[in-house]
Amino acid sequence: MSDEKAARLAAIRAANAAKRGIAAQPSTMAERVSAPSEDLVQTASARRETPAAEALSEIRRAPSQPQRASESDSFADMPPAMAFQTFIGIVLAAILGAFAAIVALPTWLPGLSASLLGAEPKAYWYLSRSSAFVAYILLWLSMVFGLLMTNKLARVWPGGPTAFDLHQHTSLLGLAFALFHALILLGDRYIQATLTQVLVPFQYSGYEPFWVGLGQLGFYGLAIVGLSFYVKERIGRRAWRLLHFLSFVVFALALLHGIWSGSDSQGDLARVIYWGSGGSVLFLTVYRVLVSLARPKKEGRVQAS
Length: 305
Hints:
Oligomer: single chain
Number of helices: 16
CATH class of the largest domain: Mainly Alpha
CATH architecture of the largest domain: Up-down Bundle
Number of domains: 2
């Protein structure tokens, strides 16, 4: 296990232990904060040697605050799973890939000219539709892993730190594929969309402009949620969590965009994808709400006993 993943795992375990300690022994925890034990003092230098120990030390200092430590707070304290430089590289790869398909491929592969530049070009449309499905599935996976974390089902599979990594990676990769999905349409001479029509919501006046506009809004919403991983230290934990609620709106917009503007939405495969993804997100969302409602009652019974 790498030091980074070990740090995440240690942070989550320490937060859970702190939560149980505060609920069961508040006076004992206060004594530990005010008077650190000799063992902690003796091992302080050793804990500073690894990232996992540093993260654990930070979480151990959290019980001095009056608010209750929660599992979502421990995830909010974790560093981004994907380095910002890596994310920028992926975005640039999507842009350059679209540019290569539009400009370079007809020159390098003249045999594709009939499909790329002919009277009824279809290659760019196929590239756009395939990348759209990939982007949508990645967005769906990001929603699933995020809900698994907040529902605490990630403890069963695939584990808290792994779910957090997958949640962020799928979100950012989905954003890159969504960008490619939009830019590749610039090469389709049948649609004849301009860069402004592709990037500015509701500026496209061709096929299903309203549903296309909703998809464009969903793309920018996904960008806001994805980039929030890198600015949560500046905007604060509360604002970061509120921004993440935007994910539900983004998913709904992407689903409506795919159903109503997709040319193959009536196909069996597309129906399976849309019904399966929408149904699973709805189920996990309802389960999350029920768990949130049941938690205060459980905590009240524990305090009463």
